[in-house]
Amino acid sequence: EVAGCSASNALEVSLFCYESAPVAEFIDILVDSPMPVRLHVAPGQPAATVASKLGGAGSWQGGSLSVLPFEFLPQDEYDRLLWRCDVNFVRGEDSFVRAQWAARPFVWQPYQQAAGAHLEKLDAFLARYVAGMSADLAAVAVNLFQAWNSRGDLRQAWRDFLVARSKIALYNRRWAENLAVSPDL
Known about the structure:
Largest sheet: 6 strands, mixed
Strand content: 5-15%
Strand order of the largest sheet: 3-4-2-1-5-6
Number of strands: 6
Distance between the termini: 37 Å
Order of helices and strands: EHEHEEHEHEHHH
């Protein structure tokens, strides 16, 4: 199965991030998860960060967590990975856009820039993204994005996200549908 997310009862999560992402903390959180988690880790920096946390190379298993590194994928295969996973952690611009089109819950890490310009971009996106959510759901989404970008309690944000995940998934399907009917740039 090429970086595939199975139809198992495990929560399927893809991870593509920059070096500054709190990956080690996230792994600790996932190991203690109340449900099984399969973490599909992109090559390069994400895989290197996981390897430095868990030691060695290859697949890892610990507690509730299975970590499955994958090789670089052609764009259409990466899209299929995003479509199949329950949650997608993405970075930069291309994977961020692809994650939105995948209509699945996602968390974005913008490329770090001087003077915190990346955080201004994150805040601007979040203001637009959560505008159609209830206040409670918006708080859950914003808290996870912020925590992933080192601005909050990741463990609590992830816990709250898991509780609201089905509502966020439904919202993201509508978000992608709304993007599809917008005129192109």
